[in-house]
From TrEMBL:
Free-text cofactor note: Binds 1 zinc ion per subunit.
Residue sites binding Zn(2+) per the record: 185, 193, 196, 199
Pathway in which this enzyme or protein is active: Purine metabolism; 7-cyano-7-deazaguanine biosynthesis
Molecular-function GO term, any one: zinc ion binding
GO biological process: tRNA queuosine(34) biosynthetic process
Stored InterPro entries: QueC (IPR018317), Rossmann-like_a/b/a_fold (IPR014729)
Protein known as: 7-cyano-7-deazaguanine synthase
Similarity annotation: Belongs to the QueC family.
PANTHER family: 7-CYANO-7-DEAZAGUANINE SYNTHASE (PTHR42914:SF1)
CDD domains in the cross-refs: QueC-like (cd01995)
Length: 236
């Protein structure tokens, strides 16, 4: 099945690209510049495309991103530190981001006669990001069938939608994904900060999966205390 993959350059989407390349016909990777402070992730997406031998398109929607204010990813708001929790990580939501990206990707897929668009939304994001939930995936696919009726029949492929980040790490390890060449940190510095929500989530996922984490972090041990505090809060 000819499949286009939306690839940010993060661990999840790079793992998905490798999975699609192994099991389907990967046609291209599509990435988006929406004005994110961690634009460095796009370098990892480009490296992934080169590694898999497919075209890579970076689509500039930064003019749209500037209007999606009040997110720490597209404004001067501070990126919160610690474990992902609904109250602290809500500020990292970019309104309608996945819906916008998916709509563009489906248009590209229709133009090149692809049969599916793949996105790496996963179970750990559900309670924070509404456009990562199974209900959104199902509704979006239904909408696209209407939007492209008579023109194309394109599926939305989201194999991680009910899986954890640790599950994705295990899958990536099985596929030989070079994890050190992926980027997760929302700070976008020289190295992963080790303190923001995505860094803590990444470090915890490697720990839970039993896979060695090759990522260099500015603060490699912060995740331990962050996870301890999270567990205490969950049990109280």
């Amino acid at each position: 099945m000819k499949t286009l993959v939306i690839c940010s350059g993060g661990l999840d989407s790079v793992t998905l690209a490798h999975e699609v390349a192994a099991e389907r016909t990967l046609t291209r990777l599509v990435s988006f510049d929406y004005g994110q402070r961690h634009k460095k992730e796009l370098d990892s997406a480009r490296a992934c495309a080169d590694r898999l031998g497919v075209p890579h398109d970076i689509i500039d929607i930064s003019a749209v991103g500037r209007l999606l204010t009040r997110s720490a990813l597209t404004s001067s708001e501070l990126v919160p530190e610690g474990h992902y929790t609904e109250d602290t990580m809500r500020i990292t939501v970019v309104p309608n981001r996945n819906a916008i990206m998916l709509a563009i990707a489906f248009g590209i897929a229709a133009a090149e006669q692809a049969e599916a668009v793949a996105a790496a939304v996963h179970g750990g994001d559900h309670f924070i990001y509404p456009d990562c939930r199974p209900g959104f995936v199902e509704a979006f696919e239904t909408m696209q069938r209407r939007a492209l009726e008579g023109l194309a029949n394109i599926a939305l492929y989201t194999p991680f939608v009910r899986q954890s980040k640790a599950d994705i790490v295990r899958e990536g390890a099985r596929r030989g994904v070079p994890f050190a060449e992926t980027w997760s940190c929302y700070q976008g510095g020289e190295r992963h900060c080790g303190r923001c929500g995505t860094c803590v989530e990444r470090r915890e996922a490697f720990h839970l999966s039993g896979v060695e984490d090759p990522t260099p972090y500015e603060d490699p041990d912060f995740w331990i205390e962050a996870c301890r505090k999270y567990q205490e809060k969950q049990s109280s």
